[in-house]
Amino acid sequence: SSGGSGAASAAHARGFEQLLAAGPCPRPSEVAAILSEELALWSRNPRHATVILSGLARRRLPHVAQVVLNLMLESRVQTNVFHYGAAISACEKDSLWEAALGLLSGMDEMSVPPNEVCCNAAISACEKAGQWQVALLLLSGMPAKWLVLPSLHAPTACSGSSRSACEKAGQWRVALSLMSDDMPAMRILPTIISYSASISACASGGHWRLALELFDQLLLSRMTPDDISCNAAITACEKGGKWELALNLLGTMRQVRLAPDEISYNAAISACEKGQWQLACGLLEALGEAGLTPSSV
């Protein structure tokens, strides 16, 4: 009835406000007390839980979102991909890459197949935290449960001697080949978002060759690059001093009808200024003509 629906909505709004009032790090017992009435409703309509978790993600409350999700599991409330996606997104906003991986791994244990939102959010969390290796392996399709750290009390394939093996550059080339050879057979394919995050992670980590190889994979997959992926690739050229490639990428942006912005120009100028000062001056002039501001660095 409409009365019952109104009461449920009121209880839902009241529960959410109480969660916000509990602060960023409430005790699990506090959350359990707040949601004692809600849990019964969630068993009948899981969408209510999705709204709560999504709201917590928007408010940048990852710890609360994780506590709520754990409480759902303990109370045997059925969890789905939207619940996990909201919780992982909450972690992504605060660069909590370990927590994001833990949640992604937990999906496998609960037989909840991840979707693009979950995987992209986890990759983005790794990128923001500078964990380019983990971002790249996630992009290659490696199960999250193999990447979770021992501190999360979950199985890992990157501990002890395995970690040393993972750190060798050859492993990342294996990951790149997996993307082109094995990913088409998987249920989830890389998207422009996951590619951009991984290219950015590699560029930030100083691994410009891998960043450019990822960009090549993106083009080979017939995706249209966006400004984020192009800027990340140009930044990688800057770090590698590859001014020719930086200029080529500026041309690629124009070919796909993307207007180079301040990041694009400034990174290309930085790549050219060490030995190619005339080109750098030309780019600086083009930047001004476009109404953009040169970097102070």
From TrEMBL:
Q: Is the Repeat keyword given for this protein?
A: yes
Q: Where do the PPR repeats start and stop? A: 80-114, 191-225, 226-260
Source organism superkingdom: Eukaryota
Q: Which UniProt keywords apply?
A: Repeat
Under Pfam families, the record lists: PPR, PPR_2
Q: What is this protein called?
A: Pentatricopeptide repeat-containing protein, chloroplastic
Q: What is the lineage of its organism?
A: Eukaryota, Sar, Alveolata, Dinophyceae, Suessiales
